[in-house]
Give the backbone structure.
Amino acid sequence: MKPSSKANQPRPRFCVLGAGHGGQAMAADLALRGFPVHLYNRSPERLEPIKLQGGIELVHMQTSLETGRAGQAQFVPLEVVTTDMAQALEGVDILMVVVPANGHRFMAEKCAEHLQDGQIVVLNPGRTGGALEFVHILNQRGVKADVIVAEAQTFIHASRCTNPAQVTLYRTKNNVPVAALPAYRTPEVVQALRPAYPQFVPGDNVLKTSLNNIGAIFHPAIMIMNTGRIESTDGDFEYYVHGVTPSVAQLLEKLDAERVAVSEALGIRAMTAREWLYVAYDAVGRNLFEAMRRNLGYKGIKAPATIFHRYITEDVPMSLVPMASFGNMLGVPTPVIHSLIHIASALHGTDFWAHGRTVETLGLQGMSVREIRHFVLEGTRE
């Protein structure tokens, strides 16, 4: 699919898979801007209020700030709202998967038989190994359709559902890398997304978008190191300010160094967490603790009220486990990552190793670095 720049060229048709905070915001924002939108969710409960009123009420705070007017809810009708995957994917051009990374496998299995030639699937975001896992499942299911799978490095919106069928969109990021698998098809993805999202820019490849996953560093470790405080206060403290002491920051730097080492073993120059803070927030410091304390964007963000939160349930199996698995295969020691996975598993009474992404579930078991890079760049095995 190659969208034309001609004025009479139809706008791309979107299907948003997932009706949580991000999915509702993305679906409503796209529809408000005139793009045909289908909204799919696996369970009907979240869709019922949307079906009853025929759409979503969107409060667009960023637009409100730009115009100087207080945010007001705008009703946005949607073309299709359904739990039927065949109906959801019929006639659409771009599938925007907006679910926690734990749900990527389900979405791949569910949509496999309904995918059509020319469609593009974008994971928003992929976390670590999202596109690799998705493509591996499609291959296992024998999908023959000419479909491109891509992943964004982070989610483009900051949003929150405030009531049934009502969502507030606080901010849209200015720049989000996106990469396709294989990498040579990334320009097709960027071109297809551009009419709706000029913010998406080409990422090098899915290894880089996956391993520049800074949430893997800032989410689970701070949660684990503050377990007692979270449970005794119900999260009534500033997560990135009071939750990151000099000792916690030192642990984060060790954790981050292991992520960077795994990346280097794959031939990827990953951005350090301290570099990311400078690029994202202009926050600088002689060490990670100083940089985080000087980041005004972190002020006022409260901790989760419980440790049973996606910062562990998603980020440990879908970010830390695949990094540790890559390290195991490539001979890169990751003792801090391993320790955090074990502790998180004990705290939650579950085996995150068994439920997480590994080189086996990504279809990379036994491959050399050369073979992995060839597959990521070309989409074929040597």
